[in-house]
Amino acid sequence: MKTKIILLLLTLVALLVTACDQGTASAQDPKVLRLGHIQSESNAWHKGSVKFAELVEEKTNGTVKVEVYPSSTLGADRDLIEGMQIGSVDFALVAGVMSNFYQPYSILELPYLFEDLDHLEEFVYGAKGEQLQEDMLEATGVRGLEFWLRGPRELTTNKRVESPEDLKGVKIRVPNIEASVEGWTAMGASPTPMNFGEVYSSLQTGVIDAQENPIAFTASARIHEVQDYLVKTDHVFGYVQLLMSEKTFQGLTEEEKEAVIEAAKEAREYQNELVFSEEEAALQEMLDQGVEVIEVDQEPFRKAVQEVNEKLANKYGRELYDTIQEMRE
């Protein structure tokens, strides 16, 4: 009888030790978060995302792990934003499509809004850019962590374009953003909103004739294989935003929140340096593939969109528009 009682006690102790071990292991399991974007693994967005993931794991001592999903694996831009709102996606890199969820972002998509890269940086890294992100968070439940810079958007086409008149009848893919649609219509083209993942095949089959994106973005998607000309319009000095679900953010400890914010800033610096070094290499790759670069007088393109810009400024944020314009001075 005593032997049975001893064996029973030993069994109970073993079960308690196992339960404690499992509880400890569970407590030590990292929080695994997902980051999605639409670019390929060769793009600076992805490399910046990987750097961000490394920094988060390092700064949280392994309590938070970020898994990166490129090439629209978690969905297109709209899917990623909606996922962050409900908490099924934790982080995403999204550019202008955010304007469909928070209208003042539409101002940032106006063609020829920013004079150059310095003008853009002055805004997004200043007090006005911070306020814009805070307002977006309140309205959407999506937190803006950092603005990452991009090269200027350029036109690629299979028709030689030197002026807005040459765009007549050109079917151009644009993101599903009102400023892009109306801007290119004003410049004379026939814009077609389309997810970026469909662009290569649509150019290949003639569904569209042209597209517009930063050079590195265009090259990483191999668009130059199905386009003849790169037209240096510099029509948008833009950004991509590292965004985070507020539901996910509030589920972190205070130390983890601070680590994520620090990691986002360091990853921004890494990506910004990388993207412009890759821009040069991407341009050379396109030249080597036989793409012809056309330097155009940008002033006629700029004048063509001014009426559209004024109209959309009144619709989406005259104060924000005027603030950015005043920074030119």
Automatic annotation (TrEMBL):
- GO cellular component term, pick one: outer membrane-bounded periplasmic space
- The protein's superkingdom reads Bacteria
What NCBIfam families does UniProt report for this protein, alphabetically?
dctP (TIGR00787), TRAP_S1 (NF037995)
**Which UniProt key words apply to this protein?**
Coiled coil, Signal, Transport
Q: Which residues form a coiled coil?
A: 253-280
The record's PANTHER family line, in alphabetical order, gives:
PTHR33376, SIALIC ACID-BINDING PERIPLASMIC PROTEIN SIAP
The record's subcellular location field reads: Cell envelope
The record's Gene Ontology biological-process terms are: transmembrane transport
Task: Indicate what this protein is called per its UniProt record.
Answer: C4-dicarboxylate ABC transporter substrate-binding protein
Signal sequence extent: 1-19
What family is this? Belongs to the bacterial solute-binding protein 7 family.
**Species for this entry:** Gracilibacillus dipsosauri
Gene3D superfamilies recorded: Bacterial extracellular solute-binding protein, family 7
Chain segments annotated as transmembrane: none
Q: Does the keyword Hydrolase apply?
A: no
